[in-house]
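Service request form, structural biology core

Requester: graduate student, group of Dr. S.
Request type: structure prediction, single chain
Budget code: on file
Notes: please return the result as structure tokens.

Sequence provided:
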Amino acid sequence: MRQRIAISVGVGLAALALHALWANATPSSRQAATHLASYRWQIPEGWFGGFSGLIISEDGTNLLAVSDRGQFVQAALLREDSQISDVTNVRRAQVLRKNGQFAPRPIGRDTEGLALMPNGAIMVSFEGQHRLERFAQPGAIPRAVAWHADFDQMPKNAGFEAIATAADGTVYAMPEAPIGAEDVIQVFALKGGAWRKAFTLNRDKQFQPVGADIGPDGRLYILERGFNGFGFRTRARSFDISGTQASDEKLLFQKGIGRHDNLEGLSVWRDDQARIRLTMISDDNFRLIQRTEIVEYIIDP
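Core staff response, request fulfilled:
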């Protein structure tokens, strides 16, 4: 029996390794982004972890994140040779309900997506009880955001994780699970208080959209995650959305299980070397076997 178990485990590990190699064997001509660095962030407090949404300041020195347990977290990023060396000045505030209270049950606190509006307001998406809300600042009382009938089709724990805002204030949102056809990501747009179906993106059933941002180049960037029981796959793509359809799809990177943890939050900015930088944060699900990491990729001009 022990021998059979050992053989089974050995075969399983070999298959796992082959899968990781296969997932990383994407043609180099399609790998537009290069991994710069990963920083493991640790704070020995019960509230720390579960980060799913991320905003990085234009100069890359500050972050705002939200966690699955309803916490806004702000911090300063110290850098050496353009890489994160420390995270300091950490502050947090509860994500409040419209009544000014903290949600009494976890299902009401499950904040997932995060996006910055042109006027400085913060847009947040919730997954336990599907909705979007607007906050003037961390810790403020939220304002409700309009709803669309199609959103009622979103399964529990598979709603809006990926949201982004354009320079004109348009909010783009995409559900983690398909609404309608299984092979497309339906992107919705909110402008002038009303939602519309904006466009669709090709969907690979191995990946789900979990983060999004509009870069300084005006392109839509999406972070996608896959899980197969052993670990997390990660990839990022970008699209031109200057018209009524998304076009010019670019695969920026694709990594197999074990390369990164559960990356869910994405923020795109331009560094002092004119490079587009993708900064991502992982959701450790408050599990000791996972980690909170801040990962950065760069796209040379």
